[in-house]
Design a protein that fits this description.
Strand order of the largest sheet: 6-7-8-3-9-10
CATH topology of the largest domain: Rossmann fold
Helix content: 25-40%
Strand content: 15-25%
CATH architecture of the largest domain: 3-Layer(aba) Sandwich
Radius of gyration: 25 Å
Distance between the termini: 46 Å
Shape: globular
Amino acid sequence: MALIEVTGLVFRYAGATSDALAGLDLTVDEGEFVAVVGANGSGKSTLARLLGGLARPAAALEAAVCGHDLLTDDGHQAVRRDVGVLFQNPDNQLVGATVEEDLAFGLENLALPPHDIAQRVDETLAEFDLIDLRHREPHLLSGGQKQRTALAGVLAIPRRVLVLDEPTAMLDPAGRDEVLEAVRRAAAGGLTVVLITQEMDEVVPADRVVALAAGRRVFDGRPARLFADGALVRDLSLGLPPAAEIGAGLVARGVVSHLPLSLDELMAALPTPTTARTAPGQAAAFAPALAPASASALAPSAPGTPAPGAPSPPAAAPEGDGIGLTCRDVSFWYDEGAAGVEALRDVDLTVGAGERLALLGPTGSGKSTLLQLLRGLLAPDRGEVLIDRLAAADPGYLERQRRVGLVFQTPELQLFASTCRDDVAFGPRQLGWDQERVGRAVERALTTVGLPADRFGARHPYSLSGGEQRRLALAGVLAMEPAVLLLDEPFVSLDPASRGELDVVLRRLVAAGMGLVLATHDVDRAYALCDRRVVLDAGRVVDAGPWRLGDGGEELLREHRLRPPFVAELWGRLGRDASQAPPQFADAVEALS
């Protein structure tokens, strides 16, 4: 029985020049687990809002959800009872003073008897493993706990369909696993689930995957069939799960017969000799030679990426020598309540000139606060932050501070000018540069991020895709010619193609000598981009130094709600020294073949 039956669904936002959904067809049967993927701007979030009754279709041949006609007033309102919607930021959905009160909120609005409300809250707390947190204030929870609480609040009311719009985008790996496990349990219990995601490994457990492009359905089938079609994956600006990224190269070489979608599938597909996978000393069968042909050939190409043999666009190279950053015994409190909230304690940190440092840690560990202290936007309550050995009161400090660039987690919110060129020029103009120098800086910054001024300079920033807006905001920082770049979760909420574009830009910058401090939950990208890591937890540095893999470093990451790099886990499963694992997935293809 189809719970969702949509034909010719159309929706356009006020003031937009094109439809967000342009004749979409979608059918979802009762009890199905369907993943929805697509590039930024393909219409995924709009679909979530329409299915949940949070917006009304402009037109449709048919728009029935749980038997409710979304084109009628009654149906539009009634569907909200049967369909629960969970968005990516749990803070926007938590309303109660405690976890228990948050779960009761929706039930109270249905005017249920108090006894029934109490019973349902108890059942839901147990179902989502929240009993020990029932009296906790939601703002004191971790990101994963918050999202589980928000999900429990949605499902405390009996639902027939659950729609999730990138529910793990803002979570650390452990929080992501918690939420996904709760979703899998709900799906196993018979709930119909529609999961919108940019994470390709989240697609693997789904019964079906639906891919959108320009507001239309362009693929509907099993995940394995989608990922096996390299041309389609490329055309849709998607990526591959990590195991499939390596597996695609092995399939192309005839080493394995089918595309593995998980690490377990990859290990099972690899041909024996068994000894090569179990004996650390017998690595000859997996010669670690690198080759240009790799799984990355199936990944989306990044706009602005030079063709093989072509010269790279000029990078926004730092002027003069590099900049070093130092924290000495730094502690910081936010003024919330009588005692305040401790964000960092006794942090010692050094970033050498031109160094590439990964700043890792679970949600709420203090990464964003530390970046703002390094940039000078916050002042420590104890200790000192030095830029090139200069403190804030020293002569020359402000000049050096100017050469430290900070890009926030959602930098597209910083865009405000009427053209891309003017937006990028704003910072250099505030520095008092003459018009000629500003023009050169703008041209160079836009070229570096793959948005050349002749094509993008006159466009309005909000006419760009999400990934392009993220790169435009980065260009605004690069135009001021920083020597070190601080990035706060730059890959969050980007589709796989946009992440690849940003990855290309960052590689150009570090190749040109720019320093980099990358705060992220994406350990794989941190491993590929950065030479050294610092792990924060509860505001303290718990590990610092080169990547420690194969000697307990993986376990340390797990203890602090992070995942080891995928290739390090793979190398360990092969019985090889994880510390020798190449940082890129694609680099492992020849070693496996």
